[in-house]
Amino acid sequence: MPKNLTNVKEDILAVTRQMIKETGYSELNIRNIAARCGVATGTVYNYYSSKNQIIAEILLNEWNLMLRRVDQSTRHSAPRIDKLKIIYDELNNFMINVHGKWFQTHPVENTEEMNVSKLNEKRKLLRNQISEKVLALVQPAAEKKQHSREAVDISDIIAHVLISYSNEEAEFSRLKPALAALLEQLADASI
Q1: pLDDT attached to residue 169
Q2: Is 68 exposed, middle or buried (0-12, 13-18, 19+ CB in 10 A)?
Q3: Does domain 1-48 have CATH number 1.10.10.60?
Q4: Fewest C-beta in 10 Å: which of 6, 17, 48, 86?
Q5: In terms of Cα–Cα distance, which of 52, 8, 58, 56 is closest to 34?
Q6: What is the predicted pLDDT for the residue at 96?
Q7: By the 8 A CB rule, do 106 and 24 touch?
Q8: Distance CA 33, CA 10 (A)
Q9: What residue stretches are annotated with the HTH tetR-type domain (predicted)?
Q10: Which of 104, 188, 187, 78 is nearest to 87 (CA)?
Q11: pLDDT at position 108, please?
Q12: What stretches in the chain show pLDDT beneath 50?
């Protein structure tokens, strides 16, 4: 009779996250993850087909957590540029503490599930999520107005800038004048 395992999926994610911090991505494998979780290798494969699939879920969870923190932090009344800094700081934290630590020294293997076109697809999806956060700074979702093409383009440019420069760990003060000008254009385009 199979033993009853509870929270195995959560354990796999937590253990994998810890192992990446300790030894890096390149040392990670399903056998070691299973051993640290105290389960059979086959049990891990019941949930995930590869270590890349585990990593993808961890990254998605971390990204969604970052988006929730952005939503929570930008709810209060503050100048738009300050809210943009919150988004930038959260992105910067994600790039340094999640994405950067894991992948700058331990690149992901090029496998079917992590091929370039799929990664570009994900990158575009994530950029669009940031772009939506930027649009929301100017026009709250409650207004439900259709955004102009210009407003969407400007918010997309801002999202590109935020993501690119957070990946380079640039200081927000360096970007602030250009972003403030783009925010003004975005506000004008949203009227």
Answers
A1: 82
A2: exposed
A3: yes
A4: 6
A5: 8
A6: 80
A7: yes
A8: 12
A9: 6-66
A10: 78
A11: 54
A12: 1-2, 105-106, 142
Please report, as a single letter, which amino acid is at residue 23: T
Q: Degrees (nearest 5) of the Cα angle 144, 140, 190?
A: 75
Q: State residue 109's pLDDT score.
A: 56
The encoded tokens of residue 17 equal 């996250």
Residue length of the chain = 191
State the SS3 of the chain.
Answer: CCCCCCCHHHHHHHHHHHHHHHHCHHHCCHHHHHHHHCCCHHHHHHHCCCHHHHHHHHHHHHHHHHHHHHHHHCCCCCCHHHHHHHHHHHHHHHHHHHHHHHHCCCCCCCCHHHCHHHHHHHHHHHHHHHHHHHHHHHCCHHHCCCCCHHHHHHHHHHHHHHHHHHHCCCCHHHHHHHHHHHHHHHHHHCC
Taking CA atoms, 41 is separated from 30, 44, 72, 109, 189, in Å, by: 7, 5, 39, 20, 55
Cα gap 62→90, rounded to integer Å: 11
Structure tokens at 138: 């100017």
Residue whose pair of structure tokens reads 């383009």 in the numeric block: 153
